[in-house]
Structures are given as structure tokens and as C-alpha cells.
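In the laboratory, one determines a bound structure by crystallizing the protein with its ligand and collecting diffraction data. In a computational setting the workflow is compressed into a single prediction: the sequence and the ligand go in, and a structural description comes out. We illustrate the idea with ribulose-5-phosphate.
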Amino acid sequence: MNPDSLKREAAARALDFVEPGMRLGLGTGSTAKHFVALLGERVRAGLDVVGVPTSEATRADAEAAGVRLSTLDETPALDLTVDGADEIAPGLSAIKGGGGALLREKIVAAASARMIVIADETKWVATLGRFPLPVEVVPFGVAPTRIAVEAAAAAAGCPGRAELRRTREGHAFVTDGGHFILDLALGRIPDPLALAERLAAVPGVVEHGLFIGLVRTAIIAGAAGIRIEN
Ligand code: 5RP
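The predicted complex, in C-alpha cell form:
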């Protein structure tokens, strides 16, 4: 089965956790897109839920699917967020931000009573870090911020290079919040919490893509079936 079918299977399984009246955080990326589309089918069949999107792309998808939308200002406490991930490890720490939406994704996840990550089995890893860690930074002073981010990683025991994310046209990638992304290639993150604390202390860093203590459940779809990790 190809990864996209597995992503859809994981998304379909997450629907089992959705109850009428729930306030839902809607994630970003190709796996979360399946969830939004499948949720739309349920909504059109009569399910009443409200969604808070984690990106402008997801807002457009959810609107097209007919999902009623809200904002965190109107709906500050959510019941459940369903989102994808770039990597997820035992203990349910995760790397997110491959799609550049990590800041809103983390704010929405933190406002949710429960976060479920949906993924195909390629995202499940023994140790985080093979996927370059996205770090959202303010555009002002990005050169010294990049140096400080690399120093923070080295101090946390995982030296590596931070590259400014660019569009296919070669421009700096700009997030929905108007920030840049540094992709921090580390190979392996031996102590995610130590790295998270070091990165959070760098002036110019808005947020990083380490999700620690936020994911309650992971739905992992593989060739052998679906596995649920809690
Ligand atoms: C976006 C994300 C995505 O959830 C992550 O990149 C996974 O994407 P996909 O489901 O397309 O593999 O964090 O910022």
C-alpha cells in the first residue's frame, strides 16, 4: 500500500475519536488534509462539530469541505486536535513543521484537551532527528539567530547545520505568521527536552517543531494494519 493510502487510513481511524459537538483543532499537511476531507463527509451527513484550522491552507480545505470554522479567540478551549507529524518516537515526542505550520499547530495543540497524531509508519522512529527540525524565527537578524540556533543544538549534544528554508523560486519561505523557517539538520536528537529548552531561549526564535508532552495518542498506519500508541 502506498504512503498516501496509509495516511488516509490513519485519518479515517481518527474519526472514531470525534464526537458530536466537539471543538476540533484541524492540523496541516497531506495526512491532516485527508482527515479534513473525511470529516467534511461526516459533517455533510449531519455531524455537528466546529473546527479551528492550524493554517490558511487548512482553513481553505475545511471551508471547501463544509466544516464550520471558529478561531481560538472565539473558542479558546478545544476538545481534540488531529494533526500529522514528520517524526514520532516512543514516548510520543514528535517533530512537526515540515509544512511550515508549526507555530499555529503548537498553539492549537496546547489549547486542546487531547492531541492525536495521524501518520503512516515511515514517520515512526526510534529516536527523533533524522528529519531536519523546523525552527520558526523572526526575519529580523536571521543571520545571528541561525548561528545561535546552531550553538544551542551543539550545547544540547546534537551539533548540526541550520538552513533557511526557501521556496522553489529561491525566496525565503514565509509562514502564515510572517516568519522564516530554519531547518536544523541534526541526524539524531539524544535529548529532545534539552534541545527544546535551549532553542526556546534563543532571541529571534518564535517556536520550534519539537512537540514534547503534547501528543496523547498516535495512530500509525502500516502495511500490517493500524497501531495505536498512547
Ligand atoms: C506541517 C506539519 C505536518 O503535519 C507534517 O509536516 C506532516 O505532513 P504530512 O502529513 O504531509 O506528511 O507539521 O507543519
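Residues 27-32, 83-86, 96-102, 105 surround ribulose-5-phosphate (CB under 6 Å). Keep in mind that any predicted model is a hypothesis to be tested, not a measurement.
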